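Write out this protein's structure.
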Amino acid sequence: MDISNDDGLLSNVARLHLNKGLLFTKAEKYNESANEFEKAIQKYDLLDKTDPQNQSIIVKTYIGIGRLLIKNDKVEEGMNTLKEVLEKNIMEPKWKSFCLFALGSGYEKQQNPQEASKHYLLASANEFILFERGSFVLHNVISYLEKAKSLGEGTIKGDAELLIAAISRLQGKHTAIPQGAISSKIEPLKDALEGQNRKMKIAEDEIDFMVECLMRDLSM
């Protein structure tokens, strides 16, 4: 059956190969995973590349390939693939989180804990966006922040600690306010934890959004 002229069917087949590739990666069947990602790319090459849904398929496929390469210890190649995808800036938070987390794992393998920590922190902020939209991913937010805290130093470590403290406070836990160094982005949140009124600024990125939402909830 020739489906090369049926964009809708081609898109569905490409998505099927993508999902199979992700499942094989999760099952650590890396040869099968690579084969499915290659099939997804072959189908994508026949698609209308101006369609946002089709663009989403290829972005997700290349994230899958990047993660697969890192898991197979082809770390530099995998990270370059993920960085290229990230630069396109067309990802929804779920996939941006996957991409950032995979980059974090790559930096860990390269024994660069500070960069790993930075990317885990950003991944947690994207997971937080999903949480605000109603997804049950708060465990991911906290888990990624814990990784950022354990690997990071200086303000990255301090930012992660304070974000964890704010979430704990909102969960009804009695949590001491961390006193480590923090970035200027996180300072308003510390003030909120200390009971000070601080005007929220317009969010410019995912970290700002996370801080703004936590400050809002602490003020209630």
